[in-house]
Amino acid sequence: MKSFNEEQFRELAGKSGEVVISIYTPTSKQSTDSYQTDKTHFKNKLKEIGRELQTLRHLEEEQIKSLLQPAYDLLDNPEFWQNNDKMLAYFIMDGTAEYLRLPAPITEPLHLVGKRPFVLPLIPQLNNDGDFYLLHLNTEKIQLFKGSRNAFEELELDEEEIPLSYAKEEEANDEFQSVRKRQGSLGSGGDFAAHGEGPGEERKQLVQNYVHRLANKLDKKLGKNPLPLYLAGLDYLLPMFRQASKYSLLQKKYMGTLNGKSNAEIHKKAWELAEDYFLEEKNKRKEEFGFRASRNLAISKDPEKLIKAALTGGVDTLLVNKRHKHLWGSYNDDGFEVTFDEGPSGDNHCLIDRAALSVINSGGRVFMLSHEEMPDQALIAGTLRYEVQ
Can you point out the beta strands (E) in the chain? Predict the structure, then answer.
C-alpha cells in the first residue's frame, strides 16, 4: 500500500481475529548501513512478539514460527527495505499480513498483540493536522503540492479537470486565429501573438480569464479536503488568483517562483510559511481546553472517566500524549464498565486506542500532542459534548 486514507483506516480498524499483531517501526528512505538499523528494529520486535505469544497465548514454537514467517521473510528482501518511508506499520491477522509505508516519523518501535489492530499511530495521517497545500502559478504549468513538516509531494492533477497550462491554451488559440486569418474570416482587431508578444491589455485580459477558470476549478477540488493553501509563482499571477479565488483557507504568505529549486528546497521554504499557522491552531486548542475545563466540559486527570465518556460518544476532541504508554484493559458494552489491567493478557487491548477509535467513529477528532503541549502533561485529555458524572 502506498497511500493511506480514511476508508483504509476504517477497513483496517474494523478487522479482528484470534491473533492480531500490530507493529510500528521507524524506517529510512536512504541508508548508509544497507538498512541494517531498520531491519534490526523490526527483528527485535518479532523476537519480543514471539516470547509474548508463548507466554500469553501459550502457542507452540512451530505455531509461532508459522505465524511470524511472512515478517521474518522480509528481513531477506533488500528491495522491501529500499522502498520504505519514515514509518512501517505491519499487521498480521490470523496469519495474513499487510503493511503501510507512511511519511510520519516514529522514534521508537512499538507493538501490540491482541484481537484487533492497534491503530492509534495511524490517526495523525487522517486529521490533516499539520498538512497544507502549495500552489505554483506559472503560465507554462500549474503545480499543486501537499506537504507537512515531515512530508512533501506533488499531487497529480487531471488536465481534463483543471486547466494546467495557459501557454498551451494560448498557443492553441493562436493556431486557431491563424487558420481564420488564412480563411479571411478574422477582422483587423484579432492580431494576437503567442506568449505575451501581442497587445499588453489584451493578453492581460486573457490571462485573467484563465486564472478565474483555474481558481473556480481548484476551489471545488480543494474544498473536498480543505487545508491551508499557500501560493508560489510569478508575481503578477498571485494577485490575480487571490482576486479570483473564494477558497476560505487561502493564506496571505507566499513565495516566489519554484523554477530551478529542488523538492527539498521547496519543502523547507514551504514549511517555513506554514509552521506559524499550525502553531496558532495548537494554541487555540489549548485555550479552548482551558475554557471548556472551567465549565466542567474537559478532563485531563481522570483517564477512566475520560475513556468511558469516549467509548459512549461523549468526547468531541481527544488529545493523546505522543509519549504513548498502553493503558491495558477492557470495556463492557452492556454495563458501560471500564476495567484496567496491569498488563497485556492477549485478550485485552489498549483502552486509549479503543477510545480514540470511538471518538473518530462518533464524528470527533483526535490529536497527538507532545508531552509539553498536553494539558497537565497527561497521558490523555479531552473535551466533552456534555457534562459527565
Answer: 20-26, 87-93, 96-102, 110-114, 132-137, 143-147, 152-155, 229-233, 250-255, 298-299, 315-321, 328-332, 337-340, 349-350, 365-369, 380-384
